[in-house]
Amino acid sequence: MTSTAKTHPIEGANRSGQTRVALLPTVGRRLLRVQRTERITPRYRRIVFVGADLGADFPVRRFAPTDHVKLFFPHPRTGELVLPMITERGWELPQDAGDPIFRDYTVRSFDAAARELAIDFVLHDHGVAGRWAGSAGPGDEIGQLGPRGNVLFPEDYPHYLAAGDETALPAIARFVEEAPRGSRVTAVIEVADLGEEQKLRAADGVELDLRWVHRDRARIGEGHLSALETAVRAAGLAPEERVFAFVAGEANALKPIRRFLRRELGYGKEQVDVDGYWKRGVVNLDHHADESEEPDSE
Q1: pTM score, two decimals?
Q2: What is the CATH number that goes with domain 153-278?
Q3: Running DSSP on this structure, what letter comes out for residue 279?
Q4: Residue 106: which residues within 8 A CB-CB, separation 6 or more?
């Protein structure tokens, strides 16, 4: 993660040159139900939620594309949905409840007028969340906590890089859609194959260079850890440019990309936000722990 300045509240656009965190005084707790679903690609599904506690004041901010919530899923065998209470001591579970099943998800969009929250899910059979998302239908219930704050990206750069794998696609999509007018965005996104490409559009006045990396056939350069690293290196970034870079995905795969941005290109710490969204073999990775951070020098 980049160096951040924590303040509350932050009004208007963030023109500080670095990410800034607006912490919220309370963490929302909501019971949501599925309103409708939409298949985005063969492996990606959008689920739109509504709920009695999902008000128009849901804390979503423009150009805060990494803001996320915790979703709590029913137990796949018993159907029990455990949603903790938030107290001064932290989480408190209902008496005799089992362990909660939860995962972090990026807020893809929020429609304040309709009070609808959209979350995009990667579909897979090896996890509770992916299996639930693949079969969920209207009326199905889920628990939700957060966000606990808004991470506002800086809006005073002429050039932005947004890169990552499919787990980062919701954040990258919002990044592209909400980038400041007059800027240029280079988006490098690794997905399984051609069929997993999504339609992303930047706002008027934003120049978009969209580069898809197909994992089934993409070239991995000599000495590189991933096809994403190879593609980022080929994106034409220059050391003398004033660039803000956001990169997210599998934590270990991001380390050489961070080294490239920080050490080889010489970008300042405030210019580079690298976020490990997941890590092979680890459930519920705490990406606030800066898993992808390394010392700036050996």
Answers
A1: 0.90
A2: 3.40.50.80
A3: B
A4: 65, 66, 67, 68, 119, 120, 170, 171, 174
